[in-house]
Design goal:
With 195 residues, the protein is an alpha/beta fold. It is 30% helix and 26% strand.
């Protein structure tokens, strides 16, 4: 890898930025600003990879010799793909739907190398959560919490929503929004060693 080659995280998510910092490699953030069309693909894994690739590609033109990382995370409840809610009312509907159910958190990860040795890797990760049965008061509290409208599924495992999780199967970091182990493997394939 050339010393000039930058690493760009195509996201403005503070949680993803924190996770990236654990890799101990210098990187910059550049949000992609793409419209996340949840109906672009029927299969949730294909959708996650499609959106992640779109995010990375949207930023790639600005960096001629870089590694661009695009990530998209959303939840699936009973086959319904759910992104960020538009309102407190929608957040409450989503949280009520996940009450006493098992949900899937799916992330797509795209790693693009721009420049003369261009390369693209795309993968996905799935983590299953069992959510406890919530009272109306708990649903209302979560829906009205500041994190609700900022996060896919209206709920952050690091925040108040974490108290509602009974069990986790899979990568905890994926639920936060960046499956680090998979990303490390993909970066290694690009010739970039991480800690």
């Amino acid at each position: 890898m050339s010393t000039q080659q930058k690493i760009i995280l195509a996201s403005r998510s503070p949680a993803r930025k924190r996770l990236m910092e654990e890799l101990n490699i210098p990187f910059s953030c550049h949000a992609s600003e793409i419209y996340e069309d949840m109906s672009a693909k029927t299969d949730p894994h294909e959708l996650a990879m499609h959106l992640a690739a779109q995010k990375a590609e949207a930023v790639s033109g600005k960096y001629p010799d870089a590694i661009i990382i695009g990530v998209d995370t959303f939840i699936v409840i009973d086959g319904e793909k759910i992104g960020k809610p538009d309102s407190v009312k929608e957040a409450a509907r989503i949280i009520e739907k996940m009450s006493d159910r098992k949900i899937a958190v799916i992330s797509g990860i795209a790693v693009l190398k721009t420049g003369p040795h261009a390369k693209k890797l795309i993968s996905h990760a799935t983590t299953h959560l069992k959510i406890k049965k919530m009272t109306e008061a708990e649903i209302s509290y979560l829906a009205n919490h500041e994190e609700a409208l900022q996060i896919s599924g209206a709920f952050s495992i690091e925040g108040e929503g974490g108290k509602m999780v009974e069990t986790i199967e899979g990568d905890y970091n994926n639920v936060i929004g960046l499956p680090l182990n998979q990303l490390k493997e993909m970066l290694a394939e690009m010739g970039l060693k991480t800690s």
